[in-house]
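FAQ

Q: What does a record look like?
A: Structure on top, sequence underneath. For example:
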């Protein structure tokens, strides 16, 4: 199961801004679809970044993030979400709705996009439930459109679990969009649909994404309400 939350996490206030840390110029030359692919696994030699050949162009930015977070996240697992495709109205290639990545955990995420930037709600959200379903409803109910901001294209942004954000509305007719997320966590990201890295020797039980996606009591753990074959 997941580890106890730190005092810092329990004190957190939702609606914090992300932090701009760099402007890497990542060139995507083909369509990609990787979701939470583990690229560093401490149980399979910590510090070894193992990337499929198609993702080698991300190595430098992953190394940068790992080094930047090493003091707090030494021994963490590192995951990469890399998507490039044609985004259209209603299909931004990312998760819809207002949410906080790493909800109920100490996880840290870095995000980058080259077009159609992520939306961030910079405001104080009040009395957000620890329930993973109710919290999303509350974000939707409380978000103030006047307080929604974006950041420049190609900005690498650091998100803690209190940064509330949403995928953008894509204007017609749409266009190609590249999106990168680097996630650092001490937990297993073992939900159905996540990518498997054949460069590591591991076999995780996988759980239903629909049932436990935001639930810190199950997502990332070794137990869940519905087991799915790995």
């Amino acid at each position: 199961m997941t580890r106890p939350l730190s005092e810092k996490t329990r004190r957190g206030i939702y609606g914090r801004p992300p932090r701009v840390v760099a402007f890497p110029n990542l060139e995507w030359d083909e369509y990609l679809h990787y979701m939470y692919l583990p690229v560093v696994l401490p149980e399979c030699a910590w510090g070894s970044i193992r990337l499929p050949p198609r993702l080698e162009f991300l190595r430098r930015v992953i190394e940068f993030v790992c080094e930047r977070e090493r003091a707090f996240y030494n021994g963490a697992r590192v995951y990469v979400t890399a998507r490039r495709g044609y985004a259209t109205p209603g299909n931004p290639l990312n998760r819809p709705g207002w949410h906080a990545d790493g909800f109920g955990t100490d996880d840290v995420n870095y995000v980058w996009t080259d077009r159609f930037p992520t939306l961030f709600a910079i405001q104080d959200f009040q009395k957000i439930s620890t329930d993973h379903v109710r919290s999303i409803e509350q974000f939707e109910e409380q978000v103030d459109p006047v307080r929604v901001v974006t950041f420049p294209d190609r900005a690498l942004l650091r998100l803690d679990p209190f940064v509330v954000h949403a995928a953008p509305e894509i204007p017609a007719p749409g266009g190609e969009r590249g999106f990168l997320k680097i996630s650092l966590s001490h937990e297993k990201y073992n939900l159905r649909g996540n990518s498997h890295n054949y460069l590591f020797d591991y076999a995780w039980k996988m759980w239903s994404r629909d049932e436990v996606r935001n639930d810190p009591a199950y997502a990332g753990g070794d137990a869940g309400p519905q087991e799915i074959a790995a």
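Q: Is there anything notable about this one?
A: The mean pLDDT is 86.
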